[in-house]
């Protein structure tokens, strides 16, 4: 499954290539609770067709009513070039209720009218090639600049200029092609991750059945090196085999990956750390980013439940949420008196 940002921009490009009038809406500021994060995008075509989301649905309905259809503002008489427009939703309690915003929630959208096809085409091609792109919109005239970026940056908006980083998509590398990997990869796909599964054991990788997942049969440590993890990469060892997991995890820990972890019991994870310190010169500090046992404690027993637990932790780390220690598997089992 591709990134929703890429889909929004690709559809917008195709609409503009076909000569349709269209608008790009981007969430640029929020106050209080908001249903969608800063940077969320929606493209709206003149006939009301749209892709992406800037809220739970009510703001989309209002944008369609105001800007699409025969009477919509995408058909302004005598206007062919328009500056970007800033609109705010949820300023009053009545508006918040009307638009389905949480209590106290307010958001601002930057609306770009009829973005140039050539610039959109260049942007989409770069994103499809896995390039990280910085897109800058100048609000005084709608001019758009595209530059290469070296690392993801937080969206910047000062009322005059919008700068955001787009692509490449989030990626997940799973070591081990068992049942847990099938459930976890399925969840990762519908959360917008590009998923690769690595397992040199033919009896496992040969039975893989989840479509949309790239499979690799090389040794996991070589695969991690070839994967070239970046700040949008998660790497999870699921094989339970130290010969496969350990070297791959060592390579991953010395990369910019935002999440590195391994399945297993508390005892197995403690043994893994001891091996890494004794045989590979790692220290407690260098292993601080190694997560294990992975997941949050929800009493999971089946592969599907464990996958939910692991995916929840990965998403929390991705979204910058500091989870309380009480939900960690290690803490919860220690205080429940469960076996290691």
Task: Tag the structure with descriptive keywords.
340 residues; alpha/beta; Rossmann fold; 2 domains; five-stranded antiparallel sheet; 22% strand; elongated
Q: What do these coordinates show?
A:
34% of the residues lie in helices and 22% in strands. With 340 residues, the protein is α/β, with parallel strands linked by helices. It is elongated.
Ordered list of secondary-structure elements with their pairings:
Elements: H1 4-17, E1 22-31, E2 41-45, E3 50-52, H2 58-67, E4 85-89, H3 93-98, E5 106-113, H4 117-128, E6 133-138, E7 144-148, E8 156-157, E9 161-166, E10 171-175, H5 179-190, E11 194-198, H6 202-205, E12 214-216, H7 220-227, E13 233-237, H8 242-253, E14 259-262, H9 266-280, E15 290-291, H10 303-318, H11 329-336
Parallel strand pairs: 10-11, 10-13, 11-12, 13-14, 14-15
Antiparallel strand pairs: 1-2, 1-5, 2-3, 4-5, 6-7, 6-9, 8-9
User: How far is the N terminus from the C terminus?
Assistant: 37 Å
Tell me roughly what share of residues is in helical segments: 25-40%
- The rough form would be described as elongated
Q: What is the CATH fold-level name of the largest domain?
A: Rossmann fold
What structural class is derived from the secondary structure elements? alpha/beta
How would a textbook summarize the main sheet?
Answer: 6 strands, parallel
Helix/strand order: HEEEHEHEHEEEEEHEHEHEHEHEHH
Mean pLDDT equals: 88
**In total, how many beta strands?**
15
What does the radius of gyration come to? 23 Å
Strand order of the largest sheet: 12-11-10-13-14-15
CATH class designation of the largest domain: Alpha Beta
Which second-level CATH architecture of the largest domain applies?
A: 3-Layer(aba) Sandwich
Task: List segments where confidence is low: pLDDT < 50 over at least 5 consecutive residues.
Answer: none
Organism: Herbaspirillum lusitanum
Domain XdhC- CoxI: 15-66
Domain XdhC Rossmann: 172-314
InterPro entries: MoCofactor_Util/Proc (IPR052698), XdhC_CoxI (IPR003777), XdhC_Rossmann_dom (IPR027051)
């Amino acid at each position: 499954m591709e990134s929703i940002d890429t889909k929004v921009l690709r559809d917008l490009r195709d609409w503009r290539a076909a000569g349709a009038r269209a608008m790009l809406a981007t969430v640029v500021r929020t106050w209080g609770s908001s249903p969608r994060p800063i940077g969320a995008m929606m493209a709206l075509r003149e006939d009301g067709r749209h892709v992406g989301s800037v809220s739970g649905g009510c703001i989309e309905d209002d944008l369609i009513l105001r800007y699409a259809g025969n009477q919509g503002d995408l058909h302004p008489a005598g206007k062919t070039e328009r500056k970007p427009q800033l609109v705010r939703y949820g300023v009053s309690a009545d508006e918040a209720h009307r638009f389905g915003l949480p209590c106290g929630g307010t958001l601002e959208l930057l609306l770009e009218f009829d973005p140039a096809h050539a610039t959109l085409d260049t942007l989409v091609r770069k994103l499809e090639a896995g390039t990280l792109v910085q897109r800058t919109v100048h609000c005084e005239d709608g001019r758009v600049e595209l530059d290469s970026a070296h690392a993801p940056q937080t969206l910047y908006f000062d009322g005059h200029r919008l700068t955001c980083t787009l692509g490449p998509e989030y990626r997940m590398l799973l070591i081990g092609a068992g049942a847990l990997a099938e459930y976890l990869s399925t969840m990762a796909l519908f959360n917008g991750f590009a998923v690769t599964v690595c397992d040199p054991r033919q009896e496992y990788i040969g039975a893989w059945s989840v479509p949309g997942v790239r499979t690799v049969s090389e040794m996991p440590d070589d695969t991690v090196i070839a994967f070239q993890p970046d700040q949008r990469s998660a790497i999870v060892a699921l094989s339970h085999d130290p010969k496969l997991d350990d070297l791959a995890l060592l390579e991953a820990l010395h990369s910019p990956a935002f999440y590195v972890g391994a399945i297993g019991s508390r005892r197995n994870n403690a043994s893994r750390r001891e091996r890494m310190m004794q045989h590979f010169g790692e220290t407690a500090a260098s292993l601080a980013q190694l997560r294990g046992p992975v997941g949050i404690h929800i009493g999971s027993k089946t592969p599907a439940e464990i996958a939910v637990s692991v995916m929840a932790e990965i998403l929390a780390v991705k979204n910058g949420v500091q989870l309380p220690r009480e939900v960690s598997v290690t803490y919860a089992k220690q205080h429940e008196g469960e076996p290691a």
